[in-house]
Amino acid sequence: VMASVALLIAASHEGLQVRFRTDFKQAVGRDAPEARFQADVVEPAFGGSLNPGVIAVQDLPEARTAEAVVRRHLARPDSEIDRVFSLASLVPEDLEPRREILDEIQEELGRLPRDKLPADAKDKLRTLDTQLAAQPWTLEDVPGRVRRLLQSLDGGLSFVLVWPRRAMALDEEIQAWAHELDQVQADLREAGVEAPILDENRVAARVLARIRRDGPRVVFLGVAAVLVLLLLDFRSLRRAGLVASALGVGMVWMLGAMGALGMDLNVFNIAVLPTVIGIGIDNAVHIMHRYAQEGPGSVGKVLRTTGAASVFASLTTAMGFAATLVAHHEGIATMGRTAVVGFLATLVASTVLFPALLRVLEKR
Question: Has this prediction a pTM greater than 0.85?
Fold first, then answer.
């Protein structure tokens, strides 16, 4: 029991190192052929991510406003934005002042005595006349295949593409990116532009935020449900508390082992926690029932019978989850590692600490 308490204290310290953190590139497998091809070939060839955020505006003036707002964000040293592009980037604005300058140049050239100029000067003037007479580049001059990439199929919407500065691999990067897009959208509203922002990473950020908010609540409800069932089963606060203590110690040991092994909770393995809670308490329940039947002094017999069966049952369950350890998808593999660590920790707590605690209580 004293050794278990010491281990509990150490595990409590190590468990504080465990964070909720997801590396999506690592989850896929950084050494996977498709991941290497994406990182080594595709992204360098296209200058970064192929999944920009899309601001859907109504027309070219709104696209200019959106670009201006995004560029103000881009100018900040802590901006999550790498670059922005739209049809507004291809079509010049403020043409009237420039047209006036060109007209002044044409007027000055018209005063030159061209018939007295040498031939080469006349050729240069004719070239300059052609350039000055050129019409400004308009939206209709943008090639159709380019417009199709930056407009909806019916031409009713124009797309402003915004690329993230970071790789969008870690959940904190995704959430920072989503926060900046939210700020961009708020600034657009202030500028009089009501435009939706379409971005898969923004959706992922909301999912991650929901998991962070609801995850502890789900675990708490799971533990509360287990405690209620224990009270209904044993009809004794003392016995229910003893069984629950075995589960609590096992869960702390589990987190301590994860901290020592450098494991974190993520969107994949967090789903295993309710399973560990449900299965992890079974052994202590069976042992307590058998002990209640056999009476004081029967701890050894209970361990040889019910305890042995519990060990094999837990090991077979752990081996079932251990099959995921060979998965190429690292996210699935983390589910297996978390499950195995959790089942082993709760197994030791229920078949070693719990019987030892019963033996100590017998002597009091």
Answer: no
Provide CB contacts within 8 A for 257, sequence distance 6+.
Answer: 11, 14, 341, 345
Looking at residue 223, what is its pLDDT? 85
Q: Give the up-direction half-sphere exposure of residue 83: CA atoms within 13 A in the CB hemisphere.
A: 9
Q: Residue written as tokens 């609801």?
A: 214
Answer whether 307's CB lies under 8 Å from 322's CB.
no
Q: For residue 329, with 0-12 CB atoms within 10 Å meaning exposed, 13-18 middle and 19 or more buried, which class applies?
A: middle
User: Alpha-carbon distance 240 to 234, whole Å?
Assistant: 6
Both tokens of 162, joined, read 């915004």
- From the CB of residue 129, how many other CB atoms can be counted at a distance below 10 Å? 12
3-state secondary structure of 338: helix
Residues in the chain: 364
Q: Which has the higher per-residue pLDDT, 362 or 60?
A: 60
Q: How far apart are CA 103 and CA 362, in angstroms?
A: 105
Could you tell me if 199 and 53 are in contact, meaning their C-beta atoms sit under 8 angstroms apart? yes
Helices (H), the chain: 2-15, 24-28, 33-37, 43-46, 60-74, 95-110, 119-132, 144-150, 171-190, 200-234, 237-260, 273-280, 282-294, 299-302, 308-322, 330-348, 354-363
- The answer to whether 54 and 160 have CB atoms below 8 angstroms apart is yes
- pLDDT tens-place string over residues 83-95: 999 999 998 877 6
The residues that bridge with 55 in the sheet, in sequence order, are 160, 197
- Give strand pairing partners of 54: 161, 198
**End-to-end alpha-carbon separation of the chain, Å?**
14
**Chain segment 72-129, per-residue pLDDT in tens:** 999 999 999 999 999 999 988 776 677 777 778 877 777 778 777 788 887 888 888 8
Average the pLDDT over 203-225 and give the result. 88
81 token code pair: 């934005």
CB 343 within 8 A of CB 314: yes
* Rounded Cα gap, residues 274 and 145, in angstroms: 52
Distances from the Cα of 237 to the Cα of 244, 245, 250, 285, angstroms: 10, 12, 20, 14
Contact yes or no for 355/303 (Cβ under 8 A): yes
